[in-house]
Amino acid sequence: MNSEPTSFSAAPVELSLWPPPPPVPVDGCPVCADLAALRDRARGWGDLSAVCDCDVLLRRHQDGHR
Questions:
Q1: What radius of gyration, in Å, describes the C-alpha atoms of the chain?
Q2: How many secondary structure helices (H) and strands (E) does the chain include?
């Protein structure tokens, strides 16, 4: 067994206290519109997990618009 303590040279990761603002759908994109509508329905149902999922999918989809 190694009795030497393990040391790490990497700095700690700092996380924000607040999540980023929700993504805004791109005008004229039907996929963005569908995801935003599903997110709004999920929020109305109180399904915050689905709201988060829609935000993730919308952000990933919007990367293709750039």
A1: 19
A2: 2, 0
Cβ proximity of 39 and 55 under 8 Å? yes
Cβ-in-10-Å burial (0-12, 13-18, 19+) of 39 comes to buried
What is d(CA 48, CA 37) in angstroms, rounded to the nearest whole number? 14
pLDDT tens, position by position, 14-53: 888 888 899 999 999 999 999 999 999 999 999 999 999 9
At 59 the pLDDT is: 93
In whole angstroms, give the CA distance from residue 43 to residue 55: 11
Residues 6+ apart with CB under 8 A from 42: 48, 50, 51, 54
pTM here is 0.70
